[in-house]
Amino acid sequence: MPRDTIDAQSQPLSRVRRRKSGTRSSNRGPIQNLIETQYFMRDYFIRRLLLIPPTLIGVTIVVFIITRLVPGGPLERAIMETQQLNASTGVSTQVAGHDMALSDEQLQRLKEYYGFDKPILISYADWVWKVVRGDLGSSYRYNEPVWDVIRSRFPVSLYYGLVTLIITYVVCIPLGVLKAIKHRTVVDNISSILIFVGYAIPGYALGSLLLLYFSVRLEWFPMGGFMSLSFYEMSFWDKTADLINHSVLPLICYLIGSFALVTLLLKNHLMDNLAADYIRTAIAKGVSFRQAVTRHAMRNSLIPIATTFGQNIVLLVSGSFLIETIFDINGFGLLGLTAILDRDYPVVMGVVLLAAVLLLVGNIISDFLVALVDPRIRFR
Known about the structure:
Elements: H1 3-10, H2 13-26, H3 30-50, H4 52-69, H5 74-89, H6 104-114, H7 120-132, H8 146-181, H9 186-200, H10 203-217, H11 236-274, H12 277-284, H13 289-301, H14 303-307, H15 309-318, H16 321-326, H17 332-341, H18 345-373
């Protein structure tokens, strides 16, 4: 009897099966590996998508409880406004034994209107059931459905976010490569000074200066707003020119802070990869320096850029409420700030829900981009 047969019989059956299965897996062709990778990718995204509902429940229930516990809510504001109205008109509607300007019946109606007549968990369950049916409630301030309020503001922030995202990566990635290759040269030093100066200036402070000089003094750009009042009466090219004219100053404020992060992040990682052993080995084997940068070092340097891509989507789409306030832009960020200040809790919950969904989807996109850039990452 051959020796390998005796060894196979003397070993446990599980070990032989593992060896046979390993032999079969090593003999798989590229088509089978591709199909298996697609299955793993599908299962991975299904698992990530299944994690979205419990994460949303955790985030929204915390915010919902906070809106019910913080003082100065819509109920207290309604009582205060009634007291101020009675004081100004000289009419008193106080009930004996109560230090308020509303009767118990009126107070109960207000609680039912604002949804404060039920326990917190029951109120949250009612809100979740409405969200499942596509109803986020009505705004206390605008007296409109929350979906309509968000729908009217979201495209404005989406426009600025997409334009900022595209310009940032189109400009900063080549600039980071140039700074890494031309390290400690005149180009690197001058660009570093400009980047750090721009990063040190807050966007809202720069926006105030730009408005005073270019809009008030020189009158090159409008004072604010997203479009002119006669925008819908213009032709296509006039609409495009008007939109660009209103977007120049806000985009400068949005871009000035994001340039430094992406540029320096790519530069530092690219310099580390250029100093690695595998780059020197590739150059020693005859690979040109340009190919070593573009085919080897560049791909590894894009990993941190791909990791932060999903987070940048949320930050850019949500916008900066300070910049939107200065330029009088009715965007998503300003809507969230005014909703918090006015205690407009249905709008607050709608903004939190949409921002959480964008963050979770952005993280999934980041994982997918990292897997495309980094060959070491596999979906399992």
